[in-house]
């Protein structure tokens, strides 16, 4: 038997061929407060393989977990009262100042609350540090951690390269480099990660929709999100672009996934892990297209689909 065929046989026999990366989005946002220790515990109790979260950096250089670069009035309370407006940016607050805010429930008067009627509040949750997440999760959990920068709003966060330095240091100090991936829509930060270390994988996030478009397929100039890479120079292929950016994972908006771009990604050696997939029927379709994992707000909905497909969560 040729060596390549033998390797494939061993892979299949080991069960690795059916391994699937089930990622809990912001913990398990559909069921518990997002980006909180309570939410991450919920995701782990449901058996996810990876905890997906978003990073921010405080004024005193601590990596914390927050999707929004500034305080969000849909999620944040101070002394029992919802904050009146967005802000200030997290990078202008010390960790001690940030820890004063409660993020244990969604403001019931917000439109955001209507999206997640099953979410159960856990009052008293504070913005966790990345160190606290590592300590809670233990030594076997995987992490997919997003650098939240926006090339169109540079004042909201640190510079992507500096952000990457803080993230890498925190991941190394948490002894989690081999089981962490750093993802971002702003590929400048991912290029920075690769310049600074070879021990942490990167995932290229992308979206093409009417509400947000980081690819810029129709633009006259390359998209500022792509780290100086030019889509046209790579035949209009986002997987080829992600490969050129040095990523090992392409993580597209789930509606942008096709059989062709999954095939192309796999030919390039890229895993495809779409976000954020919440309907079981959509999960099934994506699995049939050959994706390697899913990022979801509802890990409980994904598990029966994976079981029916004969897939094991890795």
Write the layout of secondary structure elements.
Blueprint: H1 3-13, E1 19-25, H2 37-45, E2 50-57, E3 63-65, E4 77-78, E5 81-82, H3 95-98, H4 111-115, H5 130-137, E6 142-147, H6 160-173, E7 180-184, H7 187-196, E8 201-206, H8 238-244, E9 249-252, H9 259-267, E10 271-272, H10 280-289, E11 293-296, H11 299-308, E12 312-313
Parallel strand pairs: 1-2, 1-11, 1-12, 2-6, 6-7, 7-8, 8-9, 9-10
Antiparallel strand pairs: 2-3, 4-5
Kindly describe this structure:
It contains eleven helices and twelve strands. With about 325 residues, it is of the alpha/beta class. Strands 1, 2, 3, 6, 7, 8, 9, 10, 11 and 12 form a ten-stranded mixed sheet that branches. The chain has a two-stranded antiparallel sheet with strand order 4-5.
Rounded average pLDDT? 94
What is the level 1 CATH name? Alpha Beta
The CATH architecture comes to Alpha-Beta Barrel
Q: Into which percent range does the helicity of residues fall?
A: 25-40%
Q: From the helix content, strand content and strand pairing, which structural class follows?
A: alpha/beta
The number of distinct helices, counting runs of at least 4 residues, comes to 11
% residues in beta strands: 15-25%
Shape: globular
Keywords:
disordered N terminus; TIM Barrel; two-stranded antiparallel ribbon; 314 residues; 10-stranded mixed sheet; globular; single chain; alpha/beta; 31% helix
Briefly characterize the structure.
This protein is an alpha/beta fold and 314 residues long.
């Amino acid at each position: 038997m040729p060596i390549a065929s033998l390797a494939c046989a061993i892979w299949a026999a080991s069960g690795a061929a059916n391994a699937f990366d089930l990622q809990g989005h912001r913990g398990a946002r559909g069921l518990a407060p997002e980006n909180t220790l309570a939410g991450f515990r919920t995701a782990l109790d449901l058996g996810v393989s990876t905890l997906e979260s978003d990073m921010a950096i405080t004024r005193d250089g601590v990596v914390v977990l927050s999707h929004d670069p500034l305080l969000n009035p849909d999620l944040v309370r101070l002394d029992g009262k919802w904050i009146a407006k967005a802000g200030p940016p997290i990078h202008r607050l010390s960790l001690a100042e940030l820890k004063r805010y409660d993020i244990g429930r969604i403001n019931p008067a917000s439109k955001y609350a209507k999206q997640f009627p099953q979410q159960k509040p856990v009052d008293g949750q504070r913005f966790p540090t990345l160190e606290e997440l590592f300590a809670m999760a233990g030594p076997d959990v995987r992490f997919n951690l997003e650098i939240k920068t926006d090339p169109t709003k540079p004042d909201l966060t640190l510079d992507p390269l500096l952000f990457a330095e803080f993230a890498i240091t925190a991941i190394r100090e948490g002894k989690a480099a081999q089981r962490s991936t750093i993802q971002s829509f702003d590929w400048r930060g991912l290029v920075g990660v690769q310049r600074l270390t070879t021990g942490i994988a990167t995932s290229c996030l992308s979206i093409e929709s009417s509400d947000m478009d980081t690819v810029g397929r129709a633009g006259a100039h390359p998209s500022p999100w792509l780290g100086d890479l030019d889509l046209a120079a790579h035949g209009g292929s986002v997987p080829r672009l992600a490969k050129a950016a040095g990523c090992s994972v392409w993580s597209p908006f789930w509606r942008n996934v096709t059989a062709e771009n999954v095939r192309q990604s796999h030919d390039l050696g890229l895993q495809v892990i779409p976000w954020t997939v919440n309907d079981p029927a959509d999960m099934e379709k994506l699995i049939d297209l050959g994706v390697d994992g899913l990022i979801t707000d509802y890990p409980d909905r994904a598990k029966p689909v994976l079981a029916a497909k004969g897939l094991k969560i890795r």
